[in-house]
Amino acid sequence: MRRHYDWLRQAERDLRHARNATLDEDYEWACFAAQQAAEKAAKALVQYIGGEAWGHSVLMILKGLPDEHRPNMDILKSAAELDKLYIPTRYPNGFDMGIPGEYFDKEDAEKAIKDAERIVEYVRSKIT
């Protein structure tokens, strides 16, 4: 069964959640939701071409695509930036002291959302 559209639809919902979390000033969750949106979009593309992706690194998933589906360096850079958010946005031990909510701000969330939008749009252009 091919479920690439399900993965893409969930990526779009995660991106919406990232925007909503930003409005609620839950910036760490906005950053994490943006990373999740990009990860699920990348997995949608892998499934679309008949593969299966494991792991959580958006960069490695995208770099593993065949040449004709691999995005440009700007999108790969966005993927790398989002991957940096996977752990420290959720766990207090990602930092020496404090909680993730003290380390992430609106600017971080907006950048993460932009990076995720770039990846979701790229995937959408390949799938639809």
Structural class: mainly alpha
Q: How large is the share of residues in beta strands?
A: under 5%
Given as residue ranges, the uncertain stretches (5+ residues, pLDDT < 50) are: none
Measured distance between first and last alpha carbons: 18 Å
CATH A-level architecture: Up-down Bundle
Share of helix, binned: 55-70%
CATH topology: Four Helix Bundle (Hemerythrin (Met), subunit A)
Determine Rg (CA atoms, Å).
14 Å
Could you explain how this protein is built, in words?
The protein is mainly alpha-helical and 128 residues long. It has a single domain, classed as Four Helix Bundle (Hemerythrin (Met), subunit A) (Up-down Bundle). It contains 5 helices and no strands. The radius of gyration is 14 Å and the shape is elongated. The model has no long low-confidence stretch (mean pLDDT 97).
Fold topology:
Elements: H1 4-23, H2 27-48, H3 58-63, H4 73-83, H5 106-127
What is this entry, summarized?
This protein is mainly α and 128 residues long.
Descriptive terms for the model:
mainly alpha; 128 residues; single chain; Four Helix Bundle (Hemerythrin (Met), subunit A)
